[in-house]
Amino acid sequence: MMPSANLNDLPQHVAIIMDGNGRWAEQRQLPRLAGHRQGAINAHHIIEVLTEYKIPYLTLYAFSTENWNRPRAEIDGLFQILEEKLDAGIKFAQEKGIKFHHLGKPDRLPPKIRERVRQALELTQNNTKMTLSLAFNYGGRDEIVEVARHLILSGIPAQNIDETVVSQYLYTAGIPDPDLIIRTGGEMRLSNFLLWQAAYAEIYFTPTLWPDFDKREIDKALIAYSKRQRRFGSVATE
Length: 238
Ligand code: IPE
Ligand code: IPE
Ligand code: MG
Fold this sequence. Notes:
Elements (H helix, E strand, L loop, with lengths): L12 E5 L3 H7 L4 H21 L4 E8 L7 H25 L1 E6 L7 H13 L6 E9 L1 H15 L8 H7 L10 E4 L18 E4 L9 H12 L12
């Protein structure tokens, strides 16, 4: 059941760049949206596995600020899937004790989605088993620009600004930095994901396409993580 013998070796916060849906579909001569549908089913599956492992924080990258450059039909399809999944996800979240969180700017999102997100956050706000952050219309640079704006508007004196203050203005305020960032689909880049928060994250890349990233694959990633030595700029202690 558990991927690792030592529970202390499990990350507290896992963040996933769910990449490769399009290629998964192309391999099967299916439209890209069929890949996104399968990707959403897989996200549900992985959320379930990680709740079983009692991982308290999970973040999923679903739509970047740059993904607006895709064809209109793909964008519309992605938001359609998101809407359906949010609806179905609320019941599941209540059963499993999952609290929803959104990373990203609410503006530019279709009004229906904005309303669904508001509802999902409100209904699940008292759940305590896992905080599930969904990053859509999210960009790490956009997030940092927003922090700068808020800091200026808050009138806080410049000498009082430190890393703790900046963290409190990020979309992830109150959420610890990710310990493990997984990217499926073979690309070895962050694509504007959690730029500030990734400072000391362990990064795990796999060529496996997101719809194929199953329990065995997440176990492999968690085992790889448990073997990493994190030094945070210091020296090894043993
Ligand atoms: C990731 O899959 C999902 C989103 C970015 C929305 P892609 O759609 O990027 O799949 P590939 O990279 O083209 O295979
Ligand atoms: C990153 O994937 C964004 C998400 C998975 C939501 P992309 O497919 O958009 O990234 P690039 O274009 O390969 O860098
Ligand atoms: Mg991609």
